[in-house]
Amino acid sequence: MNPGEYANLSAAEERMWWFRGMKEILLRLLDPLANQRRIRHVLEVGCGTGVTARLLERRYGWRVTPTDLSAEGLRHAHANGCLRLVRCDALRLPFPDHSFDALVTLDMLVHLEPGLEKQALVEFARVLRPGGIFVLRAAAFQALRSRHSTYVGERQRYTRARLRREAAAHGLRILRASYANSFLLPVAFLKFRVWEPLTSAPVASGVGLGPRWLEAGLFAALAAEARLIGAGLDLPLGQSVLLVAEKE
User: Does the model's pTM come out above 0.85?
Assistant: First the structure.
């Protein structure tokens, strides 16, 4: 990822609507698993600033090992109080087979060159114990690429069907597969495919806080989705795709 994005994340991700809303959606997926499964040792691949690792440790008492390829990302994660930080490549994880009860990777796969996601999934499955839980989030649909996508170094996007096939091909049995950030999809399409080209918008980060009323309204849309996903509904379209699977 663009190293310049880490400072933007550190400044906004605890308060910005997108991060708050996607956190609610993630927790709606993880809460039942935390209650039903024996999960202790968790690997996060692509930890960024460490916000998710700290959240998982505080909420569930899991022992999280956060990893990232970026020294800048790990520096921010260390400043945020993360422990057991490991700098490594997702394609060559430095851990023995069957080391972890769960593996979480959020918005990292999009930074791999097309085709390399298969190698990453081989590694993810390898370090998971049998019955271990795999949690993935990735940006969806090439048509939703934006100036922000270019800024952060996004190389590809995914569909739910593609991720389901890839996961199944690597011995991961699908438990949940849903799109998210769905209610705002029409707005996003108009912004990214019409407004940005029409105005020749520059390549720039989309991370930043807006007016309180706007933050509240956008967060409310994701909070409503979180309730639906928490009730067991998998959304049919969205700007992100979420996958929960079990290693067979």
Answer: yes
